[in-house]
Design goal:
By secondary structure, the protein is an alpha+beta fold. It has helices spanning 2-23, 34-39, 77-87, 137-141, 168-172, 195-198, 210-219, and strands spanning 29-32, 55-60, 63-67, 147-149, 156-158, 179-181, 186-188, 205-209.
Length: 225
């Protein structure tokens, strides 16, 4: 079962990477479990024999971004680092990685919130990151055509000179990831700088370059085309 799970994940990544090579476009996330995270050197070994929480791995042109909720303490360091690096100020509301909005009750408050994620539930925090979608709805919805792919990183980024702060990108995104800065009236969006992962003290957010990912696979007898 473990072998099949790992092989299925590798096959998804292999085909997506070939797609990225040809088109230079990002894709949505792949949900992975602890067994696969262990292969990538990211899992919590204490949960290896349990039904551990799943994590999300997002394939981007230069590697993988792994978000692992069972390691997140909700310290919001990633939000602070993100906004200091990109905006020159600490402002969790406009952070490109989202923790604060899931802090109390998880992604949404339900009748049985005490059994759900968040501070008032089971204490599992949920880091959310931009999926850098292939068909980015935020870009399609922008009336000013202010969101375009960066030629180098292929991340969908906001042109501040064109952005009018209308919020259409936020409404169009299935995860409401873009956020309009109330002080500048400009939308903020992930540019794949990696500052959040670089400064996550628990390893709940990791950026894994393709070279490192491939090396891990080779050590386990796998190959990527």
């Amino acid at each position: 079962m473990l072998q099949r799970e790992i092989e299925d994940f590798i096959e998804k990544v292999r085909s997506r990477r070939e797609f990225l090579k040809m088109s230079g476009k990002g894709i949505a996330g792949i949900t992975v479990t602890t067994s696969v995270l262990n292969l990538m050197g990211c899992s919590n070994t204490e949960t290896a024999n349990q039904d551990a929480p799943k994590a999300a791995a997002f394939v981007i042109p230069t590697g993988l971004i792994v978000s692992e909720p069972n390691k997140c303490t909700g310290c919001q360091r990633c939000e602070m680092v993100c906004t200091v690096a990109n905006d020159g100020k600490i402002h969790p509301l406009i952070s490109r990685v989202k923790i604060a909005r899931n802090f109390n009750y998880g992604k949404e408050m339900t009748d049985n919130y005490r059994e759900e994620n968040g501070y008032y539930g089971n204490f599992v925090m949920t880091p959310e990151t931009c999926h850098q979608c292939e068909d980015a709805k935020c870009a399609a919805a922008c009336p000013q055509k202010a969101i375009n792919q960066n030629e180098t990183t292929k991340a969908w980024t906001v042109d501040k000179d064109k952005c009018v702060g209308c919020g259409a990108c936020t409404a169009a995104c299935p995860w409401n990831m873009p956020t309009v800065d109330p002080e500048t009236s400009k939308s903020t969006k992930c540019i794949l700088c990696g500052a959040c992962a670089d400064n996550c003290i628990t390893g709940a957010l990791k950026f894994i370059p393709w070279e490192k990912f491939e090396a891990m696979l080779r050590r386990n007898g796998y190959r990527l085309s």
